[in-house]
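Let's practice the habit of predicting before peeking. Look at the sequence and jot down your guess about where helices and strands might fall. Then scroll down.
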Amino acid sequence: RILVLTNGCPNFGSGSVVSPIAPSPMNDDNQRNARYSSGVVAAPASPGRKGSPRRQRRSVGDIVVPAALAEASVYCELLGKDAFEAGIGIDVFCSGSTALGMPALLALVRPSDGFALTHETFASEEAAANLRHVLGKTYISKAGKSQRTDGTPNTSGDTTKLNKLDGCLLDIRCPPFLSPTNVVGPGVVEYDDERSVLANEQGSYAHGAQRAAANGLPTNNLPSKDTISMTLTRLRLGRFDRLATHTLMMQVNDDIRQDDQHATFQFVARFVTSDGNYLVTRVFTHRLPVADMHQFLAGQRSEVVAICLGREAVFRATAGRGSTGEEEVTVVDRDRDEELSNDARKDIDATIHLASAAFRLLGSRSGGSSTNERSLAASSLDFAFPPELVDALRGLYALRRGPLLGTGPQLSSDDRCVSRSLFMHLPMSDCLPMISPLVWCCRTDANSPRCFTLESAPAVTLACWDECILAVDQSDNLFVWSGSKMLGTAYDSMREACRDHLLRISSGRFPKPHLHMLKEGDSMSRRLTARLAPAHGDPPEHQCAYFPALSHLNAEQLTALRAKFSFYDPNADPSFRYWFWQIASASSTASKEGYSLCE
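Done guessing? Here is the structure:
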């Protein structure tokens, strides 16, 4: 293992992301200050000058140059591959107040699926917790010895039918009528034509074939290379990491038959123990029924749909449309970054437009779907988009305006690179708050002022009441926000309850989030309010329909709440309803400007 701790960007030798200082005609003072331009050491004053050296020059940090960053990214990726082939994993922890050149550092750790993380300071609880996780819960999965077919160390000297596993292998077996089209996650997809059953699995494979034959099931002379190539997707990961997660989208092929009633999926994970002596194989098999469209929609989990489509959008914003993991392009130019992000936002719009059009067509062909049989009071949205996927729709809306893809407030381009890398690596429960914050509202009980309740609330601006305290989970940041009428010490117990709730649900999370205590009127409150959807831009009747708790406020309180966000441009940051009806309308050109995320 190699652990890099650096304060600042790579600025010397091969892999430097800054331009060397070119010699130029300058006086002695300027030459001296140029040599000390990193700002780490103060330049000594010239004899005869008054004042401190600090006042005689402006300390500047290293400036990342796009051309140098592009060359450094290529160099670092080759360096990372050489290290991984030698069994070495690399992780990078960064600190500093200037640009860090994160694309190059991410390229360095990518071959071993390592982490490149940013921290405000290394002397923090978050940095220590992240360090413990990286060193204690991940390791390079590499066989120190060849394994026998039963997975135990080879001590007999017999070298026939032995395994030599570098990294972790994940096999995904699908029925022949399904083809994985979009795979997003750590590691790389292997396209080796010689893919076959590993040596230690041949015995169990043969036993399974015998049982199948005894029960009258066709075995087709398995294992067959053609069958394996048609049904197997093999991923190789650089290290063992329990948090590593992949998302897949699959396409139904034309050769599906009428008698195909079920689809069987098998996932086989193989990794070597941390001591390098034992090969572990875990198998998970699951069968799903083949359903019609209505059954398919009824069985969907909105959060899974949001993560699958969201990861594809973020991957396109990082690598570009049509790219694969092996062709991933390191974004090094801010204009290029914004261009790809804009394309990803257009692809989200195109996907939503196509899904809405298909749903409306499905309802018209069926003469009125189950959705149309709902009460007349149902929202008009239910007739334009599958109600089962509305939560996924809101998630994609939040993603396109959030820090991963949006044009809103950003901490830095380095932080965006890190957040995207983590979003395409971490499990679903950790990715959901990265898409849209999770919000809980803490209010006093009207019947008993000493009692209070903590209830889930939508992540919208209208949740910022004067008479409430918010607990907000934003994945890497936790916020406790107090309204203007909840600032007194009498409400400290409510703030403690919100704080304890956030710390409890984020316990053990990687990277460890940072807790912020905010109050209304703070300048730092914008870090929270900028992430909340601008529901104040919707008509009042839609505001109350989506957020029923607003009915507890009187007319004066509602007016004051909406007045908090009077400086608002709906064209720059449209509300959810305005955005949806703009792209879902029949006259929308969204499907022509973007490409579906399912393609």
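How did you do? The two ends are 39 Å apart (CA to CA).
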